[in-house]
Design goal:
By secondary structure, this protein is mainly α. It has helices at 14-23, 25-36, 38-59, 62-85, 90-93, 100-105, 113-118, 123-151, 170-190, 196-209, 217-230, 235-257, 259-272, 278-284, 294-307, 319-322, 334-363, 368-380, 394-423; strands at 154-157, 163-166. A two-stranded antiparallel ribbon has the order 1-2.
């Protein structure tokens, strides 16, 4: 089977270049570092990226810039208000890794993804750019995995920035999840079977080199995509899918009732072939679902939610408490972090609005470009179920931008219709 990727560009706009530089920042800085050194490469890259973003902003109207301005102004107000009420959070706001400067003001961090997507108005071009980005990242992360296998261990930076040797890389699985989710969604939605190859290789790399949670989401994405293609399928293919679903359901029931026997047989078969990883080892020992400290974190956060009042502990409210036992300090769960930060009342309102926004966005993905974009970033954001913080996760801010862009487009439709009738 010939694997062919159409990555040619007829023209690259400033917005395209900003998109590519933002999502490929790690690769770009690494390449520059070989020649110039790490510090100067980062500085040059940040100056270039910010300069191009400013050029894009000059091309936009005030009306177009209003939503991102209000969003970022709202974030500033939240942090400022929290600091006035809780000055004891100062150390976390100034943290070398998770503080305001490294996690928010640096132009390659998660929250900047909102602006990057907001400036990209053509869904077809976003998919085209994603194809190039994910192809390069897929190669980059695959080479990282191969290097770790040859070396016999991963070299990772801990929360203090110090290099340590590890048998696995917790972040690697979620890093590889981004290009893997794109290739899987692009293959399924567009019927491009050749893209299943990098998808499957990506799953293998996640299984062997990443965390346990990341391996769940490339599989879970297919039931999400099925409604996009259901009406296009022939009746026979629908019957095959229903039969497959029933078989998987039966296997799932057997798996639940005979977990140890099924897992031991499968894992021993893999290990006999020389295939081994932390994920496989955790399956063999029955520890796949172990919380790895999360149970302690969740219990602590629940206690804070109960005692935090209707509007919670404010931004970074979980950090001072969780940070006493775990250096990263965040809740490791999107829902808990929002509830502990904004309270059981304020947080519940935010979660309801987010859920409604995601459902509306999902239901209104009317073409293949919108569908690929949505699935790619939605699946990538699933890491927030078990890991990380929404403040640092670019996929979360991309989804927020997509929700607001769709809402703005919907609100403009009556105006456009009236204008068209007036012209006629």
């Amino acid at each position: 089977m010939k694997l062919k990727f159409n990555l040619s560009f007829n023209s690259i706009s400033i917005e395209d270049l900003v998109f590519l530089l933002y999502f490929l920042n790690l690769v770009c800085i690494l390449v520059l570092s070989v020649v110039l050194g790490r510090d100067i490469s980062e500085l040059m890259f940040y100056v270039l990226l910010v300069g191009l973003i400013i050029l894009c902003l000059f091309k936009c109207s005030i009306n177009q810039l209003l939503p991102p301005f209000l969003l970022y102004a709202g974030v500033v107000v939240l942090f400022s208000a929290t600091y006035l009420i809780h000055p004891e959070y100062k150390n976390w706001f100034l943290h070398d890794t998770y503080g305001i400067v490294p996690a928010f003001l640096t132009p390659v961090t998660g929250i900047w993804a909102f602006l990057i997507i907001w400036l990209s108005n053509d869904n077809e071009k976003i998919v085209r750019n994603l194809k190039l980005v994910c192809f390069i990242l897929w190669i980059f992360y695959l080479l990282r995995y191969i290097s770790s296998v040859r070396r016999g261990y991963w070299i990772i930076n801990d929360v203090n920035g110090e290099e340590v040797h590890s048998a696995y890389n917790l972040e690697y699985g979620y890093d590889m999840l981004f290009p893997t989710a794109f290739f899987g969604s692009y293959a399924f939605i567009n019927g491009k079977k050749r893209y299943y190859l990098p998808f499957l290789i990506g799953i293998y790399a996640i299984l062997m080199g990443g965390s346990r949670g990341a391996i769940l989401w490339p599989i879970a994405m297919f039931p999400l995509m099925l409604p996009f293609q259901w009406h296009k399928m022939a009746s026979r293919r629908r019957q095959y899918i229903l039969v497959l679903f029933l078989l998987l359901l039966a296997v799932g029931i057997l798996f639940v009732f005979y977990y140890q026997a099924v897992v031991s047989l499968g894992v021993k078969l893999l290990t006999s072939l020389g295939i081994n990883s932390r994920t496989i080892s955790s399956l063999l020992t029955g520890s796949f679902s172990n919380s790895n400290g999360r149970e302690t974190i969740y219990k602590t956060v629940w206690g804070m939610i109960k005692n935090g009042g209707p509007f919670g502990w404010g931004v970074y409210g979980d950090r001072p408490v969780i940070g006493r036992k775990f250096r990263w300090g965040y809740s490791h769960n999107l829902f808990l972090e929002i509830l502990v930060s904004f309270g059981y009342l304020g947080g519940s309102v935010i979660l309801i609005l987010l859920t409604k926004g995601i459902i509306d966005l999902y239901r209104n993905c009317t073409d293949s470009f919108q569908q690929v974009i949505f699935i790619t970033f939605f699946v990538t954001s699933f890491k927030l179920v078990f890991s990380n913080s929404f403040w640092y996760t670019g996929a979360f801010w991309v989804l927020l931008a997509l929700m607001l862009k769709w809402r703005k487009k919907k609100s403009m439709q009556p105006v456009l219709a009236e204008t068209a009738q007036a012209v006629v």
